[in-house]
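Action item from last meeting closed. Structure (333 res):
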């Protein structure tokens, strides 16, 4: 790799909780033998803020995404957002949510300083949506849609909708999803389905290459290259004249290790340099609770940043299997 092209590692994805109120078939399927961190093992808000202020910010991290599990299950979510937004060094703060609890907290989150939000919405058809989130009974789609409307209403910008496309389940809705961006300044991002933690679903269904989705949209409306503020690996396009954009996250068909600017902190304090590589992870919570000197923790993290593996993984070649193993919710998706 050309060293001048090495990206600065300044982006931390922070999982606030590994639990979730959904059981998405592609992430935490009901039939999986799910294990969660003991509540006492989760980083408290105070511990997380110490790690950010005393370790991550001094090591150069400036951009933060709060995720999970479902981050809105944390009762202290507004307090956490407010504290991170208030760090003078914070250049960017965003949150990824399933949207179910969003309607009531969109405004407090905005007032606490959050401006960017990603909401997962895999289908516009309530029955398909419920099937994908592993829910039976009264549909949860209306609450999520209300959450999206509330986020729009308070002014989140950009507001992104994440769609995991699964063949034979929601792939027939791709055009309708993309069409949402024509009249609304929303940013729909199609994510290639990954074989992480979802058992037989991946083996049964397979995945759809972003280019197949892109070409459907191009054939219908045309596509120009677009732009939207973000830290991620999405390739962004725009339907001509649309207010929003369509993006593609193609971790199956492309390798973007050379663009990777991030590390992941799990809810129980593991710092992980790479989504696909468990080597080199360390537990910062244990260090903190055992009274390890913060300067030492800084040195360990700085060394990890300096030594972030230069690898070139394509998810499909990485040896991940359809077995349950660890899911995106546990890693901090
Ligand atoms: N619960 C929140 C949500 O669903 O938005 C945040 C955590 S979730 C793990 C973060 C993102 O990971 C979601 O957009 C979800 O669709 C995506 N994801 C989870 N499992 C995935 C998989 N197997 N393949 C592709 N994306 C996945
Ligand atoms: Fe929960 Fe998000 Fe995983 Fe769905 S994708 S099970 S909402 S963590």
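Sequence:
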């Amino acid at each position: 790799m050309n060293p001048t092209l090495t990206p600065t590692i300044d982006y931390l994805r922070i999982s606030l909780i590994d639990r979730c109120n959904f059981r998405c078939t592609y992430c935490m399927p009901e039939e999986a033998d799910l294990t969660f961190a003991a509540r006492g093992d989760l980083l408290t808000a105070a511990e997380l803020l110490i790690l950010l202020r005393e370790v991550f910010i001094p090591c150069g991290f400036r951009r933060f995404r709060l995720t999970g599990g479902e981050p809105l299950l944390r009762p202290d979510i507004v307090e956490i957002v407010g504290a991170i937004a208030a760090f003078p060094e914070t250049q960017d703060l965003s949150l990824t949510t399933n949207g179910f609890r969003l309607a009531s907290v969109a405004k407090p989150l905005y007032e606490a300083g959050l401006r960017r939000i990603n909401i997962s919405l895999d289908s516009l058809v309530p029955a398909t949506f419920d099937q994908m989130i592993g829910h039976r009974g009264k549909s949860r789609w209306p609450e999520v849609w209300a959450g999206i409307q509330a986020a729009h209403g308070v002014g989140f910008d950009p507001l992104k909708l994440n769609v995991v496309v699964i063949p034979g389940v929601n792939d027939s809705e791709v055009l309708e999803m993309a069409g949402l961006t024509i009249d609304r300044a929303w940013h729909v991002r199609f994510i290639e389905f990954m074989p992480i933690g979802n058992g037989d679903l991946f083996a049964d269904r397979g995945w759809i290459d972003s280019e197949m989705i892109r070409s459907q949209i191009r054939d219908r409306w045309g596509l120009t290259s677009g732009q939207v503020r973000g830290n991620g690996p999405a390739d962004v396009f725009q339907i001509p004249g649309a207010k929003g954009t369509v993006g593609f996250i193609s971790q199956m068909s492309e390798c973007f290790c050379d663009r990777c600017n991030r590390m992941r902190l799990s809810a129980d304090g593991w710092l992980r340099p790479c989504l696909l590589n468990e080597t080199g992870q360390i537990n910062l919570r244990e260090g903190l609770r055992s009274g390890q000197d913060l300067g030492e923790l800084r040195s360990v993290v700085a060394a990890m940043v300096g030594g972030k593996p230069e690898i070139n993984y394509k998810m499909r070649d990485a040896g991940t299997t359809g077995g349950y193993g660890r899911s995106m919710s546990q890693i901090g998706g």
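Note appended to the action item: The chain has one domain: 3-328.
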